[in-house]
Amino acid sequence: MFERFARSWALIKASAAVLQKDKELLLFPVVSSIAALIVAASFLGPLVWWSMGHPEAFDDKSLSPMWYAWMFAFYLVQYFVMFFFNTALIGAASMRLEGRDPTVADGLRIAWSKVGKILVYAAIAATVGMILRAIEQRAGWIGKWIVGLLGAAWTVVTFMVVPILVHRDIGAIDAIKESAVLLKQTWGENLIGQGGVGLIFLLGHFAVWLPCGFLAFSAFAAQSAGLGVSLLVIAFICSLLLALIQTALQGVYSAALYRYAVGHENAPEFASDLMERAFATKR
């Protein structure tokens, strides 16, 4: 366990070393988050306003086709925004791993050149999301458990889709198939690496919220509301920064992982022995 955690930490450090050279890579998750909030407000705002006069519309038994069409459109646009900027991030990160000096414009140019394929992939992901949501609504707590497993499986199978779209001139469906093949051929400790990155940043969030939350609670108890609110705002900002850094690091990590899996040369930060331990070939 400790050895796997150490390997995960080594992968994070390697990704951070690459990110240190190109801090502008952080702009992609920042812009993606802002765009996602705008999309959410654009869809959910009118929906909330309309629902005030039609509360019965949200009864699961009376959901209309229009409701499902609205939700599908929301999923489609949100996934498109997420995949577009993730493609830009991974494209720029791949340029850095090749030894080049990418700009934000380079990443956006790569993403725009794949815009049709990204849209198709977003439509597929939106369809999967709607199916999982339907299962969750109709099967109670069992449905939620099943949806959790299916959602995790979908995330694992499609982990390499965006790097594949960046590097190859194939469609979204073929990219999903190739991602599944790469998962079978190079299983190793890929999941451990992904889970380790998430675990380390989860510990970071706890390290921020536990002391800030305790101090804020103490401040409110002492009737110092201003201090309590300030502490919560600080914790929120720190947590947001951690999330943005995690997204950028995972983009670099996935780009390096794909390049190693298909035999492309990586930057010195991702030494071959490190990648072999993290992504050993399945026997």
Notes on the structure:
This protein is an all-alpha fold. The chain has one domain. It contains eleven helices and no strands. It is globular and about 60 Å long. Helices cover 80% and strands 0% of the residues. The protein starts with a helix and ends in a 5-residue tail after the last helix. It has helices spanning 2-21, 27-51, 65-97, 104-113, 115-138, 140-157, 161-167, 172-185, 190-221, 225-261, 272-278.
Number of strands: 0
User: What's the shape?
Assistant: globular
Q: Which blocks of ≥5 consecutive residues have pLDDT under 50?
A: none
- Overall pLDDT: 82
Number of domains: 1
Main beta sheet, described? none
Note the beta-strand portion: under 5%
Structural class, judged by helices and strands? Answer: mainly alpha
Q: Span between N and C termini? A: 21 Å
Residue share in helix: over 70%
Series of secondary-structure elements, N-terminal to C-terminal: HHHHHHHHHHH
**What is the helix tally?**
11
Q: Rg, please?
A: 21 Å
